[in-house]
Amino acid sequence: PWLADGLNVLFTLGAMFWSTAMILYPRDLEAPVMAFSALPLALFLFKITKLGHLYMTRVGANVMQTLGAGIAGLSLSHTIGLAVLRGVATSGEPFFRTPKGGDAGSLWRALYAARDELLLMSGLLTAAYLLDRNMPYESPDRSLWVAVLLIQALPYTATVLMALVSVLPLPGWIIGKAGGQSTPPPPVVDVPVTQT
């Protein structure tokens, strides 16, 4: 899954580059064909379905907890993707521990910490809007490409949302009581078979 996050960073940058070119040269460039656009959508739907199933059946989380876990997990995608790409490209890059449980800080500090993701989110959402509203012709390929851009913006939006949540005094009851794990299956007991 981490390699997929690294590839997703590259895909996002390519999608932004292609979308910018489509906006600047609308008569010369078209959206990628539907088959190319459908793959990231299918992978995202699989990831979301798997997450929902695992958290609700194996962890015993309720819907709000599963949604919160999904947002928190998505918010790490860009950071993990960059770490994977750095790990592939370099050999001496040190590992930096992220600070945990510190002072909540200010809104501006939280947004500054998520500045890369805020910029990418804004770029993807702006590109999706401009492609949907300002192109001279309708195309199913373009409509699907706009959907891909919106899906690609979700991890970056999740990061910005988590940055905002980190500075807000939110009560824990919003996501509900800590769910216990689902009942584990009974242990397997080896019963020796005796022959008479």
Describe the fold and architecture.
It is a single chain. The protein is globular and about 85 Å long. Helix 5 (107-113) packs across helix 7. It has helices at 2-24, 34-59, 63-75, 77-89, 107-113, 115-133, 140-167. By secondary structure, the chain is mainly α.
Quick recap:
This protein is an all-alpha fold and 196 residues long.
**Structural class designation:** mainly alpha
Largest sheet features: none
Mean pLDDT: 82
Query: Can you tell me the overall shape?
Result: globular
Order of helices and strands: HHHHHHH
- Please tally the β strands and state the result: 0
Gap between N and C termini: 54 Å
Number of DSSP helical runs: 7
If you compute it from the alpha carbons, what radius of gyration comes out, rounded to the nearest whole angstrom? 22 Å
Classify the oligomer. single chain
Tell me roughly what share of residues is in helical segments: 55-70%
* Estimated share of beta-strand residues: under 5%
**Any low-confidence stretches, pLDDT <50, length ≥5?**
180-184
Salient structural properties:
globular, single chain, 7 helices, 66% helix, mainly alpha, 196 residues
What secondary-structure arrangement, pairings included, does this model have?
Elements: H1 2-24, H2 34-59, H3 63-75, H4 77-89, H5 107-113, H6 115-133, H7 140-167
